[in-house]
């Protein structure tokens, strides 16, 4: 059951703007949970058009099934799992319907005779026996909803916080409130008003939408004011994927590289499209599964999305002993991991993966398809109290004997990538698409009089980081 969440806004009526907000840990928990969201989940939740990121998502939807290691891989990229989802179910407001994202799991279509006893949260993964895992198992409730008062997820709920309009969070104090008000002139001070607003799941999703495109999301959402002007974001891309303490380290000869064949306009020097192997397609599609906090960490706290950066850097600045429940939870915000089995075999960007520790069980009756995370869960079909333990399988696993299986999302093949990250199997259509994109600049085919030439290049972690920084700023 949703818990009541309220927010106190300090509004400047002279300009119809939120100067700052006051809240307990409940609302701050919700804001900080954004850092755990995979980028693909943000696209799904906000349903907005975000440039090249949407092109990646559309490419996943459009590619033929034969391109993927399993059909489950497509589902993993379209609906990536959040490694902190087991925590977010206790948020005071469930804005992402986490409990409904994976109400089922899937086991082997020959589950009654298969000895492997594997499950997957994504349908049509390959069982080690060779069959598809498409037999649906439904999770039964592990426990009735708790009536215990919400005591906070990441933050100590008793602590009071101040939140700026661009989502910079600090611990509340009388001194800090006086400091904020003192920055205003006399006329503005006389126009300040305290307004209490109720937070709903719909408002949270709207806030997530606005913080990606605006530096004043609180004003936008709660006062109905929209500032659509360009943010003019500047991104630090000197060494975006080098840890802060290692910024003096230069790339070594042992750093893994990807080989690309670029097709470049000789007159303009711009890339029309590239040819690449499956490992590069894996890398690009993998961006959809990366948690926001991990991305900001890799970009040194400066992704270029100001409000997200402020949330991330607020976690670093707040005093752990006063504001947070424990250091492990801080780590899940500053360095969130990929969910189990979301790490690709040839992953260039170093992101850790959560260790699979959860156990799963199904009824001892072979004709019953109830499942649980609790081994002694009562089921009307249990035979003499027996149950079977199941193990989670890697949905990226290819079919036995598949020589094109890679351990990644994509099977061994060649792919074509346009400059705005549309990914397709090689075809004349993608060649035409890449060339006709020149019309976007108003130059058309005439700009290609100098011809097109192919250029072989190698890219490493730094180049991918630069590309990803600009990709984020297409949001």
Written overview of the protein:
InterPro entries: DUF674. This protein is of the alpha+beta class and 475 residues long. The protein has one domain. It is 29% helix and 18% strand. The chain has helices spanning 25-33, 39-46, 51-62, 71-78, 85-88, 98-101, 174-182, 186-190, 201-213, 217-223, 278-286, 292-298, 306-317, 320-323, 327-334, 428-436, 461-472, and strands spanning 6-12, 17-23, 104-107, 118-120, 125-126, 132-133, 135-139, 161-164, 169-171, 192-198, 258-265, 271-277, 360-363, 370-372, 387-392, 414-418, 423-424, 452-459. A 6-stranded mixed barrel has the order 3-4-15-13-14-7. It has a 5-stranded antiparallel beta sheet with strand order 9-8-2-1-10.
**Which range best describes the helical content: under 10%, 10-25%, 25-40%, 40-55%, 55-70% or over 70%?**
25-40%
Mean pLDDT: 80
Q: Total helix count?
A: 17
Q: Note the overall shape.
A: flat
CA-based gyration radius? 25 Å
Strand content: 15-25%
Largest sheet: 6 strands, mixed, barrel
SSE class: alpha+beta
Provide the domain count.
1
Pfam family, one: DUF674
Protein name: DUF674 family protein
């Amino acid at each position: 059951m949703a818990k009541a969440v309220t927010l106190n806004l300090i509004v400047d009526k002279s300009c119809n703007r939120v100067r700052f907000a006051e809240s307990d840990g409940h609302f701050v928990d919700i804001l900080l949970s954004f850092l755990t969201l995979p980028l693909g989940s943000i696209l799904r939740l906000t349903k907005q058009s975000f440039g090249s990121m949407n092109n990646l998502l559309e490419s996943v939807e459009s590619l033929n099934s034969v391109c993927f290691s399993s059909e489950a891989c497509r589902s993993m990229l379209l609906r990536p799992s959040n490694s902190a989802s087991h925590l977010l179910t206790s948020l005071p407001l469930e804005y992402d319907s986490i409990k409904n994202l994976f109400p089922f799991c899937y086991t082997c279509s020959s589950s009654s005779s298969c000895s492997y006893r594997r499950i997957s949260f994504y349908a049509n993964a390959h069982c080690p026996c060779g069959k598809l895992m498409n037999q649906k198992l439904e999770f039964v409730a592990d426990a009735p909803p708790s009536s215990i008062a919400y005591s906070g997820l990441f933050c100590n709920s008793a602590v009071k916080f101040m939140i700026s309009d661009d989502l910079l969070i600090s611990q509340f104090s009388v001194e800090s409130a006086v400091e904020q008000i003192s920055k205003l002139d006399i006329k503005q001070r006389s126009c300040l008003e305290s307004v209490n607003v109720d937070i709903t799941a719909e408002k949270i999703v709207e806030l997530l939408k606005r913080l990606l495109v605006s530096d004043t999301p609180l004003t936008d959402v709660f006062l109905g004011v929209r500032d659509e002007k360009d943010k003019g974001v500047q991104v630090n891309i000197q060494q975006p994927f080098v840890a802060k303490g290692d910024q003096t380290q230069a790339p070594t000869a042992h750093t893994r590289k990807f080989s690309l064949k670029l097709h470049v306009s000789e007159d303009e020097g711009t890339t029309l499209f590239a040819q690449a192997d499956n490992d590069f397609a894996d890398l690009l599609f993998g961006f959809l599964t990366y948690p926001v906090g991990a991305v900001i960490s890799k970009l040194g706290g400066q992704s270029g999305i100001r409000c997200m950066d402020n949330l991330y850097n607020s976690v670093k600045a707040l005093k752990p002993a006063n504001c947070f429940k424990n250091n492990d939870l801080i780590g899940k915000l500053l360095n969130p991991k990929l969910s189990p089995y979301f790490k690709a075999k040839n992953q260039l960007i170093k992101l850790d993966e959560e260790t699979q520790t959860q156990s799963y069980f199904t009824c001892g009756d072979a004709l019953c398809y109830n499942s649980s995370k609790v081994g002694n869960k009562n089921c009307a079909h249990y035979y003499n109290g027996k149950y079977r333990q199941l193990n989670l399988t890697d949905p990226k696993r290819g079919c036995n004997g598949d020589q094109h299986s890679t351990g990644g999302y994509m099977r061994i093949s060649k792919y074509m990538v346009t400059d705005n990250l549309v990914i397709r199997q090689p075809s004349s259509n993608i060649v035409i698409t890449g060339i006709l994109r020149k019309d976007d600049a108003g130059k058309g085919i005439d700009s290609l009089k100098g011809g097109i030439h192919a250029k072989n290049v190698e890219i490493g972690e730094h180049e991918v980081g630069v590309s990803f920084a600009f990709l984020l700023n297409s949001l």
